[in-house]
Amino acid sequence: CKSRFEKIRLSNNLTKKYQEAMRLYGKRDYSKALILFEELSQKYRGISGAETLNYHYAYTLYHLKDYTTARYQFKFFADTYPSSQYAEECRYMSAFCYYQDSPNATLDQENTYKAIDALQLFINLYPKSERVAQASKLISDLRGKLEDKAYANAKMYLDMGDYDIRNYKSAVVAFKNAQRDYPDIKYAEEMDFLIIKAQYLYAKNSLENRQEERYTEAIGFYNDFVEAHKDSKYLKDAEQLKKASEEGIESAKKYLAAIAEDQAKYKAFLEKTKKPDTVFNNTILKKSN
Amino acid sequence: SELDYFSPKEYIIGGTTVSGTQYLDKEVLITLSKLNKGDRIVLPGEATANAIKNLWAQGLFDDVQLNIDRITGDSVFFDIAVVERPRLSSIELKGLRKSERTAISEKLNESGKIINDNLYNTTRRTITNYLLEKGFFFTKVEFKTRKDSAQDNSQILEAWVDKGNRVKVHEIVFTGNKDFSSAKLKKYLKKTKQQAFYKVFGSGKFSKEKYQEDKLKMIAKMHAKGYRDAEILKDSVYKYNDKSVGIKIDLHEGPKYYFGNITFVGNAKYPTKFLQQVLAIKKGEVFSEEKLEKKLNNDPNNGDINSLYTDDGYLTFNAEPVQTKVYGDTVDLEIRLVEGQQFTNNRIILKGNTITNDRVVMRQIRTKPGEKFKKNDLIRTVREIDALGNFDEAKTSPLPKPNPADGTVDIEYTVEEKPSDQIELSGGFGAGRIIGTLGLTFNNFSLRNLFNINAYKPLPKGDGQKLSIRGQTNGKFYQSYSFSFSEPWLGGDKPVSFGISGFTSLSNYSYGLNTSADAQQRIRLNGITVSIGKVLNWPDNFFQITHALNLQQFILNNYPGYKFSTGTSYNLNLQEVLSRDSRDSPIFPKSGSYLRFTLQLTPPYSLMNKVNYATASDKERYKFSEYHKWKFEAQWFQRVVGNLVIKAQAQFGFLGQYNSAVGQSPFERFKLGGDGMMGFDFLQGSEIIAMRGYANNAVIPLGANVAQAQQSGSPIFNKYVLELRYPVIDTEQAKAFIVAFAEGGNTWDRFRDFNPFNVRRSAGVGAKIFLPIFGLLGIDYGYGFDKIPGISAANNYGRQGFTFSIAQQLGGF
Lengths: 289, 813
Hints:
The complex is a heterodimer of chains A (289) and B (813). Chain A is elongated. Chain A is mostly helical and 289 residues long. Chain A has 12 helices and no strands. Chain A has helices at residues 4-10, 14-26, 30-43, 50-63, 67-80, 87-101, 110-125, 132-159, 166-181, 188-204, 208-228, 235-273. With 813 residues, chain B is of the alpha+beta class. In chain B, a hairpin with a 2-residue loop joins strand 9 (231-241) and strand 10 (244-252). The relative contact order of chain B is 0.04. The interface between A and B is large, with 38 and 40 residues.
């Protein structure tokens, strides 16, 4: 014996199906309503009642969390019935579905970009809508997510510097790119500080003959930092890094001078005894990085 | 007449009517046309064009016309005249097999469209094109419609298909060929074959598309042999009879050419002499575009000009060979280089990771911001992303986006997630009872989200950690549970892997009616392993070292076949593994090698305690296992020709003692022979080494106590394998290889007897298939050439033809 729903589903009476779909929708039995809506939306093209039907069809998908299809249906509605009283709402909901589909900052952000575009389009189309404030807030949420991602991916290089010092150099580049891509990024101040830190650690772990140049760059970043953030909570730490950099330059210079002295002595000794250079061979100062 | 196209004028819509409708609602059509009463409209203008476009877009009409009914003052009245057509409810295909119907129906998605000539044409084309691909040349399609009683204004379209005969190639005739024999040329047409009585499978079915491809390949082949003028002058496919066609190809072969002088222009970085060395093409060699192209742009084994530059930042490097002079049969070349500038990596972008967190992939990426661009890093990165096992290997692609203005390049990596979890659920039969196994492996686990409900989709995923759990039991008599967890980047900042695993198992036999605890034969094993592995940067970054600490406990009660039967034994050891893995694929490598050296040590208890091993009881003697164990393994893969790969492998293992008074450890020995599957054997703490052509554990030392050697294993073994592999299926979803192999291996009791060349031999063939969810399944037939002394004829002297193997990617047990 077939259930009432099955009987209606298999019947050819469109009106009855329509009524049943709306009844199920009202009862929030969305998964059953969907079965009927899917069929009806095909058959109701060009027939009165299609507008209401499509509106509820879209919401059914939305309630079932099928945001990808819901988004399409909302957009379809807004495109098909631009003068409908629900057109604005559906345009908004279409964008909101993208928002719902935007994943964690640690995953691919394709849907985040699309959500921002869709919400912006909504604001442009309905600048006077009362949903504009909400849409703006959502956009700023999404931008925040992108900023989190840029920050985290740059910070990763700093964290990994310990096992390969070239990562420190990458961290400086990545932090700067994050600031270029998101000029008002909320991490701006912290990132400016981390740039000094990454450059300092890069210099510190470099070979002595490369240190002066790299420390000097760190001091340059410090000067930029002080200029931009006068009352920063990182100021004290930044000053320490600057001081350590200056000391680093001194000690590198001393070290190089000592080696040069040894080398000179040895050269003098060689010249005196006329032996070939087997100790320094000028290799000490040659190395990568 | 009333409208002036040069001066559009604004009107108010006074009303719109619809004519010609049968089933459709007029009001809805007016809404769709957006010509609402009272709206302002410019005529002529866009609005009317859009109205027609919108109505057409519904796909409901055979014709749509928008007419101006009348213009009164400022008001315009429209009439929309439509011609409705019956709508298509479904297409029924007649005269085809089920598989053909399904395949064609997938391509025909016309439901809801109107039935008109256009529909007939597209449907006919879809059907005939599909059948043409399958070799049916003379398909006829006729249409009938019938009313669909289930829906208003709907019709069912019946397509009556007469396939005719499938066409084969009766003959292929070449003309104009001198140096190339017709037989040779036919060989070059790889997928277009002449029919012949001896070809049972795929005997000469003709496919137009494949024939077109084959023609290009044939010419390319001729060019590669030095015939750079070779071309097809004319070719025709003609009907031979109702069942077959003939192919006639008229060729111009041209002379065979040779390389002449090769010069370079535009090279600032490297001298011409050096570039000529890299190019490695000598004057007088047979001219081959293929070889030239390879040496210029793509020779990963021996180096090419392109990677010389692109591995050094010259991303936009381009080399164009120009034939400057052709005299007689010799071609002089000038290779024009555009070196461009050196690029530095800037942004590194990852796309497509919908499950796996950025960090898991980003930390593997070798092209780092601020570093000089290197093509090799790019290629290596793709390989390492694939090695994570979470992405579809065929779809990982890097895209460098150079920005010449500041000499930087952004690199975008696109990946596609694939299911990487495995489940093993099996029932087997052993020891007279049913054994059930449930195993789960999650290859992209996230431990930190274990208590985060929102992360369960259906499990916490995305951190690239691996978790396996496995249980096996036949009820009361045998139970075994194990788990393992590994994190490839301990702490997230360094490529130091951390692993922890543990297991517990119990085997229990009771004979007769006496089931008191004392009479049971029982063995319980508990074990735990903690390991740390590190990728080394020296001698090269394929090296890896692993340190592991293992603790095992064996509790025996009346358990036969051991050197002691009741008591508790502990095995605490430190294991050091140094390995180098440069294989190009983890499952079916085609090149690269794998080397592994393992040393495993227990503390030398006998040097520290005061036990007199000469008089000690078994219980005391075996309480703490002591041994040192050395193992070495080498595998090497090389492509022989085409996709045929040769694998060579050598393995050696040695179990030694610190103190001769203690004797060799009963645990940790090697069992050689059979399928190599662990099964119950790990209970005895021994190591199983596969050897096809012999039964499990059958390859025992000469003169050994047969029962003991089979039960506990032997302290020394070595083994060699030579295998030819050919891929039958090589897709992302499944991979299958057929193999032919020869093996040699043996075991010894004492090192002074050890002779690496005195081995038992076997040879045979087999097949292996890899399915992502099942792992690697194998079936082999091997013939053992040597009888194993001590094993009876009833057991076929230890030989066994077929072996089946399942290598789950479940680590450990």
